[in-house]
TrEMBL record:
Domain ABC transporter, first and last residues per copy: 9-249, 271-497
Lineage of source species: Bacteria, Pseudomonadati, Pseudomonadota, Alphaproteobacteria, Hyphomicrobiales
The name this protein goes by in its record: Ribose transport system ATP-binding protein
Native source species: Pseudoxanthobacter soli DSM 19599
GO molecular function, one term: ATP binding
Signal sequence annotation: none
Keywords: ATP-binding, Nucleotide-binding, Repeat, Sugar transport, Transport
Length: 499
């Protein structure tokens, strides 16, 4: 950081409302050159909205944006922002699935035109991928729609960091590690440090507080549409950061049972007992190892991202209620998608209907859906999951990313499913709500529901009774909770047959 240079960007008095919701209520934020800002706050605090203003994709109702000490910029737009060297990777990926990796790079970098653009686009994206994610295994001719969510995110990130013309002064990363496994996430965070050392500024948004504290120079804490604290990262511990974020209002009046009571979880249970409800063997598995889940168990699916965990969940989903050669599943299943854009939300429907859709059968009266029951269910799950909206009749896309994810969770838990399949579903959910959801999962397991939970966060595996580690589409380790450690999972992820 050079003291004599003016601040890179200064936002002052930024306000933005969406109808009755005041998303930003007069935000001031200064971004210095070469610093990494960690931006944190609960779901719906206003982080993404503020970043959209900074990226020029959203026009504030009030406030000024000043770049490099010049006069406040009039009509700050996407092209203005890009001209000032501001780029961002948003939560919702923007790549075209029906185009290749190189073709997508070309769209992001319009200066790559004329003869030979395909080769130059391929070189640009692959060399950037090599720089940030060594060993990534992505080829320029790969169709983006065929890539795992994690790899798509890697392409998006590399494409944003790549410079084909102009200059790069600020990168905004809105939950960039959410679908990356630990190893790849580490590569990205290391790259962020290299970029800031080279003078580029970075704003990093993450709900994974450990990674943000270890990477950022300065933390900016948002709550209810305003910045409530901004201090050097070294001034915080994880706990003091959680305290600074404050609590979100949870209306407990509709809650079934006391979610704050210690969960009667099966954690620490050594012996596995109870009827088997899922038995499944990955198609490529050699030997006789198979995934077994019993009634009331929370089963973790670990390992590096994209190593067959989602396929296993799909296999179990498709085998529901049947017994077959590869899987036997006893009971009804519900799926909580991690890729909410393609598998999760019904974008044209209200928040309420997105929650109740799987339970409409139970709300039928004389062949019609009883609106009173539907309202009741919507309200109960709005409160239980702390879905932040003034009205469940609003469209699902009016919710912040984390709140959309909570709605998907509510849909599965509200249903009559005996077995809940979770495809890395906590991505983008804030720490307060995560704790709430973990408690709900444990309560529901104690009532006899079974959970199959794929997660890329090791900390989440610690909530499981038993963990299966996946590698190249097969089960390579089978760990009871008492034998679970991060080292063990990582070791198994890299070795052919570790347990
Ligand atoms: N297009 C929109 N229409 C209506 N309300 C919106 C819209 N976009 C955002 N909001 C509301 O603005 C508030 C701030 O949302 P924002 O997405 O900025 O939160 P966030 O801090 O990024 O949350 P998350 O951690 O869940 O991503 C929320 O109450 C959200 O519901």
């Amino acid at each position: 950081m050079t003291e004599t240079q003016p601040d890179l960007i200064r936002l002052a008095g930024i306000r933005k409302s969406f109808g009755a919701v005041m998303a930003l209520r007069g935000v001031d934020l200064t971004i210095r050159r070469g610093e990494c800002i960690g931006l944190v706050g609960h779901n719906g605090a206003g982080k993404s909205t503020l970043m959209q203003v900074l990226a020029g994709t959203l026009k504030p109702d009030e406030g000024t944006i000043t770049v490099s000490g010049h006069e406040p910029v009039r009509g700050y737009s996407v092209s203005e922002a890009q001209g000032w060297g501001v780029r961002c990777v948003f939560q919702e990926l923007s790549l075209c699935p029906n185009l290749t990796v190189a073709e997508n790079a070309r769209i992001r970098h319009p200066s790559l035109k004329g003869p030979g653009w395909r080769r130059r686009a391929a070189n640009l994206i692959i060399s950037e991928l090599d720089r940030i994610f060594p060993g990534h295994g992505i080829r320029p001719g790969d169709l983006v729609g065929d890539l795992t969510l994690g790899r798509r995110q890697m392409v998006e990130i590399a494409s944003t960091f790549a410079v084909s013309s102009g200059h790069l002064d600020l990168i905004i990363l809105d939950e960039p590690t959410s679908s990356l496994d630990q190893v790849v996430a580490r590569q990205l965070l290391d790259h962020v440090r290299r970029a800031t050392a080279g003078g580029c500024s970075v704003i990093l948004i993450s709900h994974i507080l450990g990674e943000i504290l270890s990477t950022a120079d300065r933390m900016v804490v948002m709550k209810d549409g305003g910045v409530v604290e901004a201090k050097p990262a070294s001034a915080y511990t994880r706990d003091s950061l959680v305290a600074a974020m404050g609590t979100i209002a949870h209306d407990t009046s509709h809650r079934a049972g006391d979610a704050h009571a210690p969960a009667p979880a099966a954690a620490g249970k050594a012996e596995r007992s109870g009827p088997v409800v899922v038995e499944a063997r990955p198609p490529r598995q050699r030997g006789d190892r198979k995934l077994v889940a019993r009634k009331g168990e929370i089963i973790g699916l670990g390992g590096l991202a994209g190593h067959g965990q989602t396929s296993m969940l799909v296999l179990v989903h498709d085998a529901a209620g049947r017994s077959g050669r590869v899987a036997t599943v006893t009971g009804k299943v519900a799926f909580v998608a991690g890729d909410r854009q393609t598998d999760g939300v019904f974008p044209l429907w209200s928040i309420g209907r997105n929650v109740t859709i799987r339970s409409l059968g139970a709300m039928r009266r004389f062949g019609l859906i009883d609106p009173r029951k539907e309202r009741e269910m919507e309200q109960r799950w709005k409160d239980r999951m702390a879905i932040r909206t003034p009205d469940m009749d609003n469209g699902i896309l009016t919710l912040s990313g984390g709140n959309q994810q909570k709605a998907l969770f509510a849909r599965a838990l509200a249903s009559d499913a005996d077995i809940i399949l979770m495809d890395d579903p906590m991505r983008g959910v804030d720490i307060g709500t995560k704790e709430e959801v973990y408690r709900t999962i444990k309560e529901e397991a104690a009532r006899g529901r079974t959970f199959l939970w794929y997660t890329t966060e090791f900390e989440e595996l610690e909530h499981c009774d038993h963990v299966y580690v996946f590698r190249t589409g097969t089960l390579v380790a089978d760990l009871p909770r008492s034998e679970l450690s991060e080292e063990r999972v990582l070791q198994s992820s890299f070795e052919e047959d570790a347990a």
